[in-house]
Every structure is written in structure tokens, then in C-alpha cells.
Amino acid sequence: MPDEDNARLTLWTFDWVPEGPRGFVRDLRLRWACEEAGLHYQMRSVPFEDRGPDHLTHQPFGQVPFLTDGDLRIFESGACLLHLAEKDASLMPRDTGSRAETMSWVVSALNSVEMVSVPWWFVGLASPPENPLEGWLRARLDSLERVFEGRDWLTAGRFTAADLMMADVLRLPWVRAFGDYPATDAYVARVCDRPAFKTAHADQVAFFATADGNRARRKEDGG
Ligand SMILES: N[C@@H](CCC(=O)N[C@@H](CS)C(=O)NCC(=O)O)C(=O)O
């Protein structure tokens, strides 16, 4: 939960983004994890338009999210999520086998699914007659469909950080629209129906809406 007074955990995002990505900026993964685990955190932002040296010392690619936890600095949403997950068994099971599975699925969401879905989407923006990455994405989504036909959650028989990351990668509307995947659709709907996701999503949308207001006021003031 956001807590300006007691949080040593700070999640960083941009001070503003255009309307399209709102609700999808990857700081949502970290907000969501904190909400699931009841961790106190505060939000801080770096300029979207002017990515300065201080930002680059936290995130070498000038991206978000990153976090600070006391003196500790972590970047990459996967690394940040794993750090947060270690704080609470609701996100990271304590038994060795389930921990290993949870970590495997978190990394696979990023390195086997998002690693394909993002380039596929990017190539598609140019509307080529055929997207050469379509077969690659289809193979990944077909495999996942078979997984979700057999279980409600990726590991441990319950929600973990693995589901958070996988659902966040899969919930993008253009990924959902890619094909007919009923078991995956049901999985994504199940994971995103969690109150913690809804809070994190609403908070992010509100954060950027406030940023719009602040921008408009600065413009009025001639800033
Ligand atoms: N692999 C990075 C990707 C981060 C990323 O793409 N962040 C987007 C916002 S969701 C961003 O900063 N975009 C601006 C840019 O790439 O310049 C992670 O998972 O943290």
C-alpha cells in the first residue's frame, strides 16, 4: 500500500506517459506485488521527456521501473519483482521446489514470452503483409495454452509471483487478440480479477491522470 511516511521501499516510474500505455507501464508489476504482499511503499518519478544522468545511474537504459529499498538499488521489472517476492510467502513459496518453479516461470514470462511478444508487436506496427514473428509467438502461446488447460496457477497450486508476471505479459490486448486460447483467456481473467491487481491498475491510471493535471498547470504558469 502507498505509505509516504513509513515506506523505505520506493518504486520509480515516469512522471508522465501518453495515454496509450497507461495501465500497462511496467511499474504496475511492482505496485501489484506490493499490494499482494501488503508491503508499504512510496511512488517517485523520473522525467519521461528528459532522462538525465541520475536516472541512468539507476536504470542504464533510461527505462522504468526501478526500485530503491533503503540503500539497495534494483532495476529490471523481473529483478525488482523477485526482490519483492522474497519478502513475502504469498508471492514466493518457501519450499525449495516451488521456489525454483516460481523463479523459472517469472524468468520464462520475460525471456520466453515477452521476449517474443514485444518484437512481434513492434514489427506489426509497420503493418507488413506477413509478420515474420507470428509463428514464433504462436508456438509460445500454443505451449502455454496446454499448460493452462491442466492447471489454474503456474506453480504451488496457488497464485505466486510467477502468475503476476505471466498474466501481466499475456494481458496486453493485442496478445489476447492474437488467437483462440480459451484456457489462457480464463487464466488471465482469473489472475487479473485479484483485488491487488485492480488497486495497482487504478493507482497507476490515477497517477498519470494527476500528471496530466500537473502538466497543464505548469503550462498555464508558463513553465
Ligand atoms: N526489460 C525492462 C523493460 C522496461 C521497459 O520497457 N520499460 C518501458 C516502460 S513499461 C520504458 O521505460 N519505455 C521507455 C523506453 O524504453 O525508452 C523491464 O522489464 O524492466
UniProtKB/TrEMBL annotation:
<protein>
    <submittedName>
        <fullName>Glutathione S-transferase</fullName>
    </submittedName>
</protein>
<keyword id="KW-0808">Transferase</keyword>
<dbReference type="Pfam" id="PF00043">
    <property type="entry name" value="GST_C"/>
</dbReference>
<dbReference type="InterPro" id="IPR036249">
    <property type="entry name" value="Thioredoxin-like_sf"/>
</dbReference>
<comment type="similarity">
    <text>Belongs to the GST superfamily.</text>
</comment>
<dbReference type="InterPro" id="IPR036282">
    <property type="entry name" value="Glutathione-S-Trfase_C_sf"/>
</dbReference>
<feature type="domain" description="GST C-terminal">
    <location>
        <begin position="95"/>
        <end position="212"/>
    </location>
</feature>
<dbReference type="InterPro" id="IPR010987">
    <property type="entry name" value="Glutathione-S-Trfase_C-like"/>
</dbReference>
<dbReference type="Pfam" id="PF02798">
    <property type="entry name" value="GST_N"/>
</dbReference>
<dbReference type="InterPro" id="IPR004046">
    <property type="entry name" value="GST_C"/>
</dbReference>
<dbReference type="InterPro" id="IPR040079">
    <property type="entry name" value="Glutathione_S-Trfase"/>
</dbReference>
<feature type="domain" description="GST N-terminal">
    <location>
        <begin position="14"/>
        <end position="92"/>
    </location>
</feature>
<dbReference type="GO" id="GO:0016740">
    <property type="term" value="F:transferase activity"/>
</dbReference>
<dbReference type="InterPro" id="IPR004045">
    <property type="entry name" value="Glutathione_S-Trfase_N"/>
</dbReference>
